[in-house]
Specification:
With 212 residues, the protein is mainly α. It has 2 domains: 54 residues, Homeodomain-like (Arc Repressor Mutant, subunit A, Orthogonal Bundle); 145 residues, Tetracycline Repressor, domain 2, CATH 1.10.357. The chain has 9 helices and no strands. The relative contact order is 0.11. Keywords: DNA-binding, Transcription, Transcription regulation.
């Protein structure tokens, strides 16, 4: 991996290349993308690219990691403001759908990672689930949610969010002219959350499952 930038200007240049790579990978896909297209989009020379990245594969993996870091931050910050797990779930899902409306590349690039960089794909989902499991286990200890296998629940909740977002964000018609996708309609969001809240409610199936 290339050395980290040593100056503020270098940090900004590297970030600009990452942003350009995200747009290129989203619009034309990994196989049609090229370093020349990325540098043209970023407004930098080829030599500058190689100061920060070894090649296309490395910058792709960095884009995946950057998207993962940003979406986790958005969800965590939103959930942290709430005082119970169910409210945190609502806030976290809203933040996720808002992020994907603003950054549809999250879906398109992660789908490419399945074939281009399976390790980056597993890292993406694994990091999200890791934090989710920790939060669910803590909520079980305080009785905010029913006893359940936290890992299974985390993967199931993540799957719900991803597929609902795909249907009502990524596939929804229209945008605001900036590339931002529509957010999940409120009635769809409420239907999804009612399903989740019933599944997680402390009095639903008490005594079954386990704090795994």
């Amino acid at each position: 991996m290339s050395a980290a930038p040593r100056t503020a200007r270098g940090t900004r240049t590297r970030a600009k290349i990452l942003e350009a790579a995200e747009r290129v990978f989203e619009s034309v896909g990994y196989h049609e993308a090229s370093i020349v297209k990325i540098t043209d989009q970023a407004g930098v020379g080829l030599g500058t690219f190689y100061l920060y990245f070894a090649g296309k594969q490395e910058v792709f993996d960095e884009v995946v990691e950057d998207l993962n870091r940003r979406v986790r931050h958005a969800m965590t910050e939103a959930a942290r403001a709430e005082d119970n797990r169910i409210a945190a779930e609502r806030a976290g899902f809203r933040a996720f759908f808002r992020f994907t409306a603003e950054h549809p590349a999250l879906y398109r690039i992660i789908r490419q990672a399945e074939f281009v960089s399976p390790g980056a794909l597993r890292l993406h989902y694994g990091r999200i689930v890791e934090g989710y499991v920790e939060g669910l286990r803590a909520a079980q200890l305080t009785g905010e949610v029913r006893p359940m296998n936290a890992e299974v629940a985390a993967w199931a909740l993540m799957g719900i969010g991803e597929l609902v977002g795909m249907r009502w964000v990524l596939w929804q018609e229209g945008d605001d002219g900036t590339g931002r996708r529509p957010e999940v309609p409120e009635e769809i969001f409420e239907e999804m959350m009612q399903f989740i809240e019933r599944a997680m409610a402390p009095d639903a199936g008490a005594g079954k499952g386990g704090n795994q």
